[in-house]
Amino acid sequence: MPLSDFQPVIGLEVHAQLLTNSKIFCACSTEFGAAPNHNTCPVCLGLPGVLPVLNARVVEFAIRAGLALECTVKKTSVWSRKNYFYPDLPKGYQVTQYDQPICEHGKLSIDTPEGEKVVRILRIHMEEDAGKSVHDASAKESLVDLNRAGVPLLEIVSEPDLRSADEAVEYLKALRDVLVYLGVNDGNLEEGSFRCDANVSVMRKGATVYGQRVELKNINSFRFIKQAIEYEVARQVDVLESGGKVDQETRLFDANRGETRSMRSKEEAHDYRYFPEPDLPPLHVTDAQLDEVAQSLPELPRAKLTRFTSQYGLPEYDARILCAERPLADYFEAVAQHFKDYKKLANWFLGELLRLLKDEGGSITTLRFTTVQFANLLGAVEQGKISANAGKDVFGEMFRTGKEPEAIIAEKGLAQVSDVGAIEAVVDEVLGKNAGEVEKYKAGKKQIYGFFVGQVMKAMKGKGNPALVNELLKKKLGE
Ligand code: ADP
Ligand code: MG
Ligand code: ZN
Q1: Which ligand is nearest to the CA of 52?
Q2: What are the domain boundaries of the chain?
Q3: Cα separation, 367 vs 363, whole angstroms
Q4: CATH 1.10.10.410 is right for the domain spanning 420-476
């Protein structure tokens, strides 16, 4: 049976690092890139005799994510110890939540070729990150950096609702967008602040029981997630096709080879012996706390996208780009207060503004010009005061210097001539000088029309208002 006779089934576990200033159970900084073991204290080093103190921000962020993902936020949840031995885990256990996580039963919508699909979220829980083993700094030893030990994470586990690698990637992008919009995560896969493990199985089409799942680890880009899942699906189908059976195991994705390989099998599977964390009482969330977080939730990416298409009448393509990042969307709306041709405005955003930000650097939150200046420039183009091309020059100058558009237009002498009398005089002069061409034109050689436009524009140093130039030329040529 070919691949197409099988149905992939995928469930994802995402670990998202929370954007708190301090760690989950101590006051150490969470900053990235500090000298090894600089951000540590007796608590996150796991020294005996210390007690954890829960960072309230972590709970707030977990509730934020839970509400945004339409979960039930539980009034009581419980901390557990997950025991395993590893050099980067000084306590010998990770503090996490196990059978009573803070959030359950949520959902997230994604776009698929067949339309919108709702992916169910099984659970969201809080936990602490482990440290990092560094194997390549020395030939003889492995080193341990505990700066990351105790950095807060959210683990977000989906139901096995995804049916292809593409759906898995869509889900991850949508989830990342939500977390970044909420301000709880920076969405950086490469730096590992948004990490994903993929659980993959296959079953014959029409089957009602899922196949044996394999867990894939170590995938740190959207492209690799797609590759890893597709490789793994094909591998499992091969195994089943040749009469074998898929083993329950954890496999690592090898980005260089584009394949997955076994890391540990069921026999070596961890027995974590979870038990309740005696140093932390059960966590209670009050109604007041829930209300407060609910009040402060921003509009989420999907809702914003829908509103941008309806309220501003934008094509979905434009709306998608504008809503990809919250500051960009906010800035669009701020300029839209002052300039009402929304499609034209979107064109400037997608064209000039994003190009300048990409080519010349800078960020949407530190632009040198105001929303009103931006709108004034677009107004000047709209009213024919300057040409569209001149508008782009002025915009570039505003971008670099923050000068008033009017000042730049005056300084560079870019103002278009829209004075009918002035244009008419030039048109008359051009037609008078080229009487022979005019004859030919009138006799039917219509293709030389562009020549007249060119002559008028040349005489006016490119500053004639094109609409007026055309109007007057046609009138004089008897059209
Ligand atoms: P574990 O700690 O054993 O990985 P979790 O509950 O944390 O268990 O995660 C289980 C993940 O595996 C979930 O994302 C779930 O959707 C997924 N999953 C469960 N069964 C299957 C299956 N048969 N095929 C693919 N994914 C599955
Ligand atoms: Mg797992
Ligand atoms: Zn610490």
Answers
A1: 3
A2: 3-289, 299-412, 420-476
A3: 7
A4: yes
